[in-house]
Every structure is written in structure tokens, then in C-alpha cells.
Amino acid sequence: MQPKQRILNAPVYQPGKPIDDVKREYGLTEVIKLASNENPYGSSPKAKAAIVEQLDNLALYPDGASLNLRWDLADFLGVKPGQLIFGNGSDENLLMISRAFLNEGTNTVMASQTFSQYRSNAIIEGAELIEVPLKDGVHDLEAMAAAINEQTRVVWVCNPNNPSGTIVTTSELEAFMKKVPKDVLVVLDEAYYEYVVDPEYPQTIPMLAEYPNMIILRTFSKIYGLATLRIGYGVASEELVSQLEHVREPFNTGALGQVAARAALKDQEFVISCRERNREGVKQFTDRFDEWGLSYYPTQTNFILVDLKQDSDAVFKKLLSQGIIVRSGNALGFPGYQRITVGTKEQNEKILTVLQEIVAGALK
Ligand SMILES: *Cc1c(COP(=O)(O)O)cnc(C)c1O
Question: How far apart (Å, rounded) are the C-alpha atoms in residues 271 and 325?
């Protein structure tokens, strides 16, 4: 068989190791996963109730346009319903944007290192990659603007950035948008938007009026804790949304996800409480890292990238043997580092106890 040659050059996504896999391999009964930036507090109980109610309708196709969710979310964000596009997670929105804008002879600008899917989608579409190194773990927007040329179609700004957790500020983003040509699409991937507490973080929805070449991506997978239901959304001009609609699959989001997302949206108390508990968890880590003299990137997310100055894969395996799954920095372009999702207070304490032994060289 002869698939398109270039798809074989696209890396296959390597997800965080599943809990059951680790239990089996290491003969453990208790395993904690701090690898995929999932919400340790689960999701709003209202979301679960909405799903139960929907269980009688499994035989029906979902509403392809996600109308009820669309109306609620448009109200919540203060945008028009036609400014929203829904994806099977943000991942699918990234794919739709790539499918609509990239092909051979075009290029796309992104940071190195950033979320891996921008890169794989670009390879699949045959676009050239222009990767601009992070500066101290932060998007170098000046260098990214300078890298744009005639063939550039899309620029990816992951804000906060995964895997470094850092943000670009309002003034940095505004200066950048002024430099980007009007026919180049800027994607702001804000998967961790709801976790951010830094007042310098840009509020991008009001910027859409001035910059129709911008799309904001957010998701119900992270703070809302609905990762398994796969609901992500884009906010952009109505014109851009109508262009992307041409590449959207007819029933790309399921009815269970739609009803759960609506219910979750109405429970902002849950979101606020998760954000607050997450900041306490971040402090739990940074206090200890400071004490141990370890460096880490200042995070506005629910994960932290820390430099343990030891072989990443070896540390990763030691943690696995203790029933803790994280992401090895080697897989993320940060050798020597680990990316750790902030868990509950108890989970954080557990990994910190093991890390202390690793840092001290006591765990072989
Ligand atoms: C998790 C994540 C996504 C994908 O989220 P889904 O909505 O679950 O597909 C996209 N971008 C970034 C930066 C992420 O960390």
C-alpha cells in the first residue's frame, strides 16, 4: 500500500502513560497520573447529571451545529453565535485550521518548544515549518513576527505555553498583532485560559474586533475536567468561522459532550475553586523547588516544568516504579526536565516526597 509519503514523517502522538498500564507493569495497586494536565478534582457534578439525562437519546445523532451549547457559550463570552466553531477537543480545531490553511508551498510559524500538534498537522498538510526558539521559556514574539514571509499562512501562539507554562503579556501580544500582515492567521491556543491569574495576561476576545485574522481556541478538557468528552471551541470573526465550517465533519462533537459542557459552563463556582486550589498546589511545588535550589518556569497553568538536572527518562522510570506518572522532558524537548501536572494536595505531597529522594540521589 502507498500512503502519502509525508504523513509517515509526522510523529505519532505519544500520550501520557495510562494508569492501568503502569499498575500492570509494576504490580502496583495505587498509581497517580500527573502527566496529561487533567483536572484532579474531576468535573462539575452538574455535568454528570446532564449526561445521565441524555442517556435515553443515544440512538440519535447529535446536533451537528451544537446549537444549545453555541447559544449559551456565545452569551457567556459576549460574542455572536456565528463566531463560534466547535471541535472534537481543541485538537480537532487545530486540525481543521491546518486543513483549511496549509498545504505544499506554504509555511507556518510556531515556537520551539510548544504543543506538538501544530507541528504534526503542518507536516501532514505538507507545509514548511518555521520554528522559533522560546526565549527563557516564553514565546519570542518579535522573532516570530520577523520570521513571517510571503508564504506564511498561520502563526501559532500557545498562551500559556505547553510545556513551559509561561505567558505572553497584553502589551507583547498587541505589539505582535500590529506587525502581523492582515492575511496571516494568528491562532491563540488558550487551553489553560481559566487557570491564569497573572493580570498581564491578555484578554483576547475584545481584540477580535480589531484583528479579524485571529482565532482563539479554548477547551472543556482542562479546568472543566471533561477531557473524555472532547469539546473544544474556537472564537473568531464570523467570516473565518464560516470558512472553517467547510472542513468540519458533520457530527464532530457528541451530544453527551454538548450537554455536559453546557452544564459545566453554568457552574463557574467549580472553575473558580479549581483555579484557587491549583494556585495553592503550584505554590506547594515552587516552595519546595526553591528550597532545593531547582529551577523551573513560572507557570500560569496546572503543570510545572522543572529542571531536575538528571536524565529525564531515568527519573521518569524511577517515578513510575513509585506509582507516579509524569511527562519526561525528553519527549517535550527539555532534556533534564520533568513536566508535572499539579494534583490534589495529597498527590503533590506524594510526588514531592519521592522527588526529594531523587534530588538527594537516594532513590536508585
Ligand atoms: C491539552 C491541550 C490541547 C488539546 O485539548 P483538547 O481540547 O483535549 O483536544 C490543545 N492545546 C494545548 C496547548 C493543550 O495543552
Answer: 25
